Amino acid sequence: MPDLYAQVALDMPIGDHFDYQLPPEAVSLAVPGRWVLVPWSQGRRVGVIVDIVDTSAVAERTRPIIRVLDEVPLAPRGWLELARFAAGYYHRSLGEVLVPTLPKLLRNGSVTGTRGSPFTRATRRFEVERRAAVQRGSERSGEGSGKSGGDSSGDSDGKRGNEVGDKKAAPELTVEQQQALDTLSAERGFAVFLLHGITGSGKTEVYLRWIEQLLDRDPTGQVLMLVPEIALTPQLSAQLKARLGRHPIAILHSDVADGERAAAWLAAARGEARLVIGTRLSVLTPLPALTAIVVDEEHDASYKQQEGVHYSARDLAIVLAAECKVPVVLGSATPSLESWGRARAGRYRLLSLTERATGASLPSIRIQPLRGHPQEQGLTSPARQAIAETLARSEQALVFINRRGYAPVLCCEACGWLSACDACSAYRVLHRSGASRAGTPSRYRLVCHHCALETTVPRTCPTCGNIDLQALGRGTQRIEEGLAQLFPQARIARLDRDVARRRGAAEAVIDAARAGEVDLLVGTQMLAKGHDFERLTLVVVVDADAGLFSSDFRAPERLFATLTQVAGRAGRAGGQARQGEVLIQTRYPDHPLFEYLCRHDYAGFADQQLEDRRGMNLPPFMYQALLRAEADAIADALGFLGQARDAAREIAASLGADVRLYDPVPMPIARIAGKERAQLLLESASRKALQALLERWITPMRQSRSKVRWQIEVDPLEI
Ligand code: ADP
Ligand code: ZN
Ligand code: ZN
Fold first, then answer.
1. Is the pLDDT of residue 154 over 50?
2. pLDDT in tens, 246-297
3. Worst-scoring range by mean pLDDT, 107-116, 323-332, 351-360, 407-416?
4. How confident is the model at residue 352 (pLDDT cuts 50, 70, 90)?
5. So where are the chain's domains?
6. What is the pLDDT of residue 166?
7. Given this model, what pLDDT does residue 156 score?
8. Does 88 have pLDDT greater than 50?
9. How remote is the CA of residue 306 from the centroid of ligand 3, in Å?
10. How many A from CA of 190 to the centre of ligand 3?
11. Rounded distance from Cα 431 to ligand 3 centre (Å)
């Protein structure tokens, strides 16, 4: 029997670790935080050593580890602690948290790559950049303050970045920006800052200056910057590279190809990349020299992981900052009510930017009633007129509709047939494929947005044979088509997830819009976030009503955020440029949400929402967890949840934990891809009580076999 065993976390739902023998030659390398390759049944798996012990309860059955993956850097303590926290808090095994964070290419234990492979090239580039940075660093030392900008020589993806780098040197900070920066600079230990800045207030500039200071101050320190998914990343990373490119920068998001990703990850894990910019998963990148964290657009729902371990990257960023004793900044024009509430309670330090950095004023927002106002192509006459005037001034307009496709449903007016999906409790959405301009033939199909099933459009009504089927309502494609009819001279571009599916397509639209090659932009939220289109002076929201009367208590918060973001695209230029104008079409012009919106009063809205939530005992005054189950029959899912609830009730009683257990109910969209889904909500005013219950409740549930698939979500965003 060997003297030592390694406890290894593997990507398995049960068991926090598995014991393996440590061969003598591995002992010196094998410490907690090491990646290893171990045998598993007939195959092998990658895992992380979490502890070394000298006895094992299953000693006779243990096998030796195959190899220590010493080409992967030893993970730092803070990272392991973060993963432990996440495993505990989200009630998953440690390995389920840890293992998926290692890029695919590094998992099979052979990373060397061949000459000229993307991985090798990317690795070389980091090395070159790092040397150059060290070189420049030694030249710069003694130079004093770190205020130089505009050096884009370290730009690592070559094709972008220069445009921004050439155009913009560092602007002089506004008084508010300077105050925010000074406050940040003074903090060296753990603290959470909420940077609340209106759209266009120059939050990015504050991050950038702070990051610049941090990197110059500590020649080995690393900064992690989290950004939401999609379109935002190229523009932002180009800007950061242009200004901070003298430091090696690693970019980690799902669009980065495997080889690049592995190289970037390694550069980050080795401490070579000084700035790591990434989407939610990058919060779990091991960073040995972390000195600060930025979470941009902290309210964004894409920070919530929806597969595997359902963690909130924003929340984990705060835990990581605490673990590493470094400051973290959460930034947004419309912070989540969770963060806002904590800032109001003094737990986060609030930094405010109340004016646009360019001196531009915020757009004027007008509410346009739909009822009693005839529409053409979904647009009221004031909306059409505003667009016409904008085009006449050679400025840009953005038409926002948060629904992709041509029309949300196809119907038969003779018998009432609707294009329901056979596999889901939802309608199939009419999509148009092929060219979208008049004159060219196009085809239609029906697509289910839940199960992705596509079908052709029936020629006649499947129930009554009527040949006259009608598209009901509008999506981005139909709006685009309508605009082309109303404004035949205008150059129109659309951006939504369907367009963005083609690699580079979203960037192309954004670049064209920035270059002024587009007059009318049509799109979903993808157009709302972060973009800076100089000539854009009008935003029309086709229909704001979906979020107004939703059963989800977070719907108003989300709607307010979306409308603020999209409105914030208008009139950003300042100087001689026109004030932006926003027109919101609605059936409920008197809804109180619009009053706050028109006054640009996020704080008023948020405080009011918090009051409502307090009165109704909703988060953030309550902590929630959701157990979801799916089965072929709804009765099975509900039955499973009913039993689970009984078990939870007993545990709660034995713990004396004050946790409220609701009745299991079918989910709002009960059936998806043929599976019936139901959920059970638990809530408590005490996070501790809820967590204590979950801990006792979940483990036995994992160990017992059930034909019902289930998952637990802590702090669910959608209920
Ligand atoms: P936010 O992220 O807060 O919406 P941005 O960071 O996109 O705002 O900044 C809005 C615009 O203001 C950008 O074009 C940016 O270059 C510009 N800007 C930022 N800070 C300043 C400043 N101090 N002086 C002039 N322009 C600035
Ligand atoms: Zn019919
Ligand atoms: Zn479906």
1. no
2. 899 998 887 778 888 899 999 999 999 999 999 999 999 999 999 999 999 9
3. 107-116
4. very high
5. 5-101, 118-353, 364-405+475-613, 407-473, 623-714
6. 41
7. 39
8. yes
9. 19
10. 46
11. 14
DSSP state, residue 302: G
**Nearest Cα to Cα of residue 277 among 291, 265, 262:** 265
Domain covering 364-405+475-613 in this structure, CATH number: 3.40.50.300
User: Which superfamily, per CATH, for 118-353?
Assistant: P-loop containing nucleotide triphosphate hydrolases (3.40.50.300)
Q: Do domains 5-101 and 364-405+475-613 have the same CATH topology?
A: no
- The residue contributing the CA closest to ligand 1 atom 5 is 202
Long-range Cβ contacts of 640-647 (<8 Å, 24+ apart): 640/706, 640/708, 640/710, 641/678, 641/679, 641/680, 644/680, 644/697, 644/701, 644/710, 645/680, 647/697, 647/700, 647/701
What pLDDT is recorded for position 527?
Answer: 87
Question: Is 204 near ligand 1, meaning CB less than 6 Å away?
Answer: yes
Please name which ligand lies nearest the alpha carbon of 414.
Answer: 2
Mutating to test ligand 1, I would choose from 194, 199, 204 the residue with most ligand atoms within 8 A of its C-beta, which is 204
Confidence band, pLDDT 50/70/90 cuts, at residue 382:
very high
User: Which pLDDT tens digit goes with each residue over 589-610?
Assistant: 999 999 999 999 999 999 999 9
Average pLDDT over residues 639-667: 96
Phi, psi of 263 (to 5 degrees): -65, -45
State the burial class of residue 29 (Cβ atoms within 10 Å of its Cβ: 0-12, 13-18, 19+): middle
**What does the pLDDT read at residue 3?**
81
Where are the alpha helices (H) located in 405-496, listed in sequence order?
Answer: 476-486
Residue 201: CB within 6 Å of ligand 1? yes
pTM: 0.90
Cα 420 to ligand 2 centroid, rounded to whole Å: 13
Fill in the amino acid letter for 234.
P
From the alpha carbon of 174, which atom of ligand 1 is closest?
Answer: 23
Decide whether any atom of ligand 1 lies within 6 Å of the 199 Cβ.
yes
Q: Which ligand is nearest to the CA of 412?
A: 2
List strand residue ranges (DSSP E) for 519-568, in order.
Answer: 520-523, 536-541
Class assignment of domain 5-101?
alpha beta
101-106: average pLDDT: 89
CATH architecture of 623-714: 2-Layer Sandwich (3.30)
DSSP 3-state of 156: coil
Amino acid at 695: E
Tokens 């531009």, residue located:
360
Could you tell me if the CB of 577 is within 6 A of ligand 1? no
User: Are 378 and 432 in contact, with CB atoms under 8 Å apart?
Assistant: no
Q: Say what the pLDDT of residue 435 is.
A: 53
Q: Is 714 in the pocket of ligand 1 (CB under 6 A)?
A: no
Which of residues 574 and 331 earns the better pLDDT score?
A: 331
- Confidence at 531, pLDDT banded by 50, 70, 90: confident
Counting ligands in written order, the one closest to the CA of 195 is 1
- From the CA of 410, the nearest ligand is 2
Residue nearest to atom 27 of ligand 1 (CA): 357
